[in-house]
Amino acid sequence: MDSIPTANRLPRYTRRDFLRKSATLGAVLAGGITFPSSRSRLYAGEKRLFEGVTLNLLLNAEPYAYAVRKHQQALYEKYGIRLNIELTGLGGPDYTKQMVEFTSGSGLYDIVFMSPVWMADFSPYMEPLEPLAKKWNLDFKLDDIAESFRKVYNSWDGVWYTVPFDGDVHILFYNKVAFETPEHKTRFRDKYGYELTPPQTWDQWRDMAEFFTGWDWMGGGGQKRYGG
């Protein structure tokens, strides 16, 4: 079995090599890449599709980098891609370090872990992914990413630059019995002028929090309750 070299710095490819080949990594990490003629096993004398490519990554510290390290050996065995990983501190991605490298034109990093709020600043230095995806028939599985993240986290000025690593979604839990009790529904409608259903706006959220506060809506013997 091949193993990934552990040298501190591996031989670098040129920017042209990177732009021509490195979109592969993003597609694999995003959930899979499909090459029409690819096979899981190599035969004697065969060359892996990206043999000799080394990508330099700047990633947030563990445990975040684990998501990349988890696939590191498989990437090398199947595609011939070597990863040279450098970690930032626990505080998160390092804006200053990345911007210095970008503006100086050093080309030190091929892929970086960044915050989407930096997209406007970083976009002049990033390679659009859509042309590379079309050229290499890469499937980034964007349909599996929440629309808000696809639009806000991945693109700037209508151009697709990044693949999301993490995204937080707020979820509302509510007491279904409390909302469906006929007495509660009538009492709420009489007071606020609309139906008691899960809130769709912050104004409705406030009304419902007020409605379910300060009285025994669970019928527990007079105990005052707070919130729905």
What does this structure look like?
The chain is built from 10 helices and 5 strands, in the order H-H-E-H-E-H-E-H-H-H-E-E-H-H-H. By secondary structure, the chain is mainly alpha-helical. Strands 2-1-3 form a 3-stranded parallel beta sheet, with helices on one face. Strands 4-5 form a two-stranded antiparallel sheet. 17% of the residues are buried. The N terminus is likely disordered.
Total DSSP helices: 10
Reading the helices and strands in chain order gives HHEHEHEHHHEEHHH
Morphology: elongated
Sheet with most strands = 3 strands, parallel
Intertermini distance:
58 Å
What is the name of the CATH architecture of the largest domain?
Answer: 3-Layer(aba) Sandwich
Number of strands: 5
Residue share in β-strands: 5-15%
Count of individual domains: 3
Structural class: mainly alpha
CATH topology of the largest domain: Rossmann fold
- Order of adjacent strands in the largest pleated sheet: 2-1-3
Classify the helix fraction into a percent range. Answer: 25-40%
Point out poorly predicted stretches.
1-44
What would CATH call the class of the largest domain?
A: Alpha Beta
Mean pLDDT level: 77
Radius of gyration: 25 Å
